[in-house]
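Milestone M4 deliverable, item 7.
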Amino acid sequence: MNIADYILLVLLLVAIFIGSKRGFFSALLGVVSFIVGVIFSINYVDWTTSKLVTHMKVSTIMVVFVSFIFMFVLVYIVAKLLGNLFYKVASLRPLGNVDKIGGAVVGAFQGWILIGFLLFLLVLLPLPDSIVAKLDSSFFAPAMRGVVPLIYEGTAFAHPQSPYLIDKIKDALKAKPAEGSRRIIDSSSDDANVKRIIDDMEHYFGR
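Output delivered:
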């Protein structure tokens, strides 16, 4: 274990604590919302990027990064609102200590998914080699990061036209500004970074 593991472990413990406070049903709604958010953000990242790339004066990579966050947050909020509505309509009641224990367990899953998604997003960023090395040699980071393709490709029945994570990333990174756009980016630098990201994605998540 290295310093990255201790940081990730602290974040996971925070998620467990929050889950125990929220209770089983509330934490479960959070997990479902996270899973739906991950699936939708990946499945529509290429579409979202193609819409935003013309209007954002940053590299395509940053547009992909923003697209992931935008879609994840949007879908999470909608799913959470629907879940809370169901929670109220169903009149689910707390289960006492069992509720707290169940919430802690589910909170661990929720924290694992969220941290994994954040680690996945970090692959898009030009991190210092020292940080990349710490994450790659970490005990927790590779497993947490691996939850993203596990969720997306494990639910391929819901998106049979685009079952593989790496293909969606490649499609998103190929997005180009609309003809006539004034968006000017150093394409040589962008292309080099895109190649680096694709190589890293294939190394971590390639099939």
